[in-house]
Amino acid sequence: MPTQLRDGQTLLFIGDSITDCGRREPVHAPLGIGYVRLFHDLLIAREPEKSVRILNRGIGGNTVFDLRSRWTDDALAHRPDWLSIKIGINDLNQHLNRGDDWLSPKTYEATYRELLVRTRDALPETRLLLISPFYLSRDTASDSYRSRVAALLPKFIASVAALADEFGALYVPLNDIFSSHLDRRHADVVCPEPVHPNLTGHLIIADAVYQTLSGD
Hints:
globular
């Protein structure tokens, strides 16, 4: 089934290193070598009759605070017809490392909501696609950092799902999608460490975005 994207529209992806994926390096500019580039290629292969402008505004290490500081220039100024946001794992890590209210799930959700409100006010016709954060680890040791991340992650995911519902956005439950792969194969096949996917992992993300935009 084709996506809801129409010929001549603009789809802008924004987020952290998973979205960035080298897009600021001259050899990989402007889309990087991750899921944004792969989605671009899937769209050409599956819907050659459409000409859709794809923009990548991911920056490695970003949190919702970083997105807030550059939202006008890197998101709203481009006036995209579709806006995809994938953010959260750096927020979670910073919250754990600081050990206070800095980027707590509550602060994360409030700041994320602020971005969506700003978008709705400035660009009321722009459609939203929210992608959940993910973390690929089955570590259950009570004293391990990975188990602490996995224990807190559902709160960040729930925030994104709730915001998608609140703002009528499409939603990609990416952590669930990757978890289903871990039921069938070792994590190394898709993500050699818990945060940054390999090419196969990025293809999974690109396909999930495509299927969500298709309504499948």
